[in-house]
């Protein structure tokens, strides 16, 4: 009997308040680099590191993600953290592994998150449930970045099995952040070409970030 290769799925979580073009480009480059069948976008319900009262509602954030990815057959939005308080990433990964035992997951995080990964809830357990793709928007082929990555990797995990499940990927440097978008909107400035048109229309229609 031929053993089938596991389906490979990327996971991109975040508050997505709002989702912007750098989120989409990161997802696309990781999907291509690792041969992923899909990338699932999972907006955080109640992120433990942020004040929930300062966030847009979950429904607004989920709707913006759904609109932004609707034309990409490789992208999918999940609302599984809508009622989870607090929204610990590890708990979400455990739920996904239980629901999709045939899937090999690739959790996508930024370099800044990886650098403080020991502050994540039960970080030592993550690699039991997912691979980790650390994306950096720095200079391509930066030896300093690679050195810093290996140093941090050795601090976090000692065994070779774990280290083989953590990858560094340098992606296109798009200097966009959700906080930047919110600030521009608040000050009455344009955010066109920073967010997808569907997201821009949604922000204006619902008067978000005013």
Output the structural class.
Answer: alpha/beta
> What value does the Rg take, in angstroms?
17 Å
Low-confidence stretches: none
- Largest sheet: number of strands, sense, barrel closure: 6 strands, parallel
Core attributes:
single chain; 210 residues; alpha/beta; 6-stranded parallel sheet; 8 helices; 6 strands; globular
Summarize the structure.
By secondary structure, the protein is α/β, with parallel strands linked by helices.
Written account of the structure:
With 210 residues, the chain is α/β, with parallel strands linked by helices. The mean pLDDT is 93. The protein is built from eight helices and six strands, in the order E-H-E-H-E-H-E-H-E-H-H-E-H-H. Helix 2 links the parallel strand 2 and strand 3. The N and C termini lie far apart (60 Å). The protein has a six-stranded parallel β-sheet, with helices on both faces.
């Amino acid at each position: 009997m031929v053993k089938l290769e596991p389906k490979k799925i990327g996971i991109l979580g975040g508050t997505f308040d709002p989702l912007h073009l750098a989120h989409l480009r990161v997802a696309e480059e990781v999907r291509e680099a690792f041969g992923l069948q899909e990338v699932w976008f999972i907006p955080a319900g109640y992120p433990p590191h942020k004040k929930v009262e300062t966030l847009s509602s979950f429904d607004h954030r989920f709707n913006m993600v759904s609109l932004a990815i609707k034309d990409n057959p490789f992208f999918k939005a999940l609302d599984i953290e809508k009622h989870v308080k607090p929204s610990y990433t590890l708990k979400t990964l455990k739920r996904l592994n239980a629901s999709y035992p045939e899937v090999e997951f690739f959790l996508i995080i930024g370099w800044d998150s990886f650098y403080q990964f020991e502050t994540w809830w039960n970080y030592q357990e993550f690699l039991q449930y997912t691979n980790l793709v650390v994306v950096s928007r720095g200079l391509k082929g930066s030896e300093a970045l690679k050195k810093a990555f290996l140093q941090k990797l050795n601090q976090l995990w000692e065994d070779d099995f774990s280290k083989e499940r953590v990858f560094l990927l340098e992606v296109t440097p798009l200097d966009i952040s959700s906080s930047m978008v919110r600030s521009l909107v608040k000050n009455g400035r344009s955010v066109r070409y920073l967010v997808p048109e569907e997201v821009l229309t949604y922000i204006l229609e619902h008067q978000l970030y005013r």
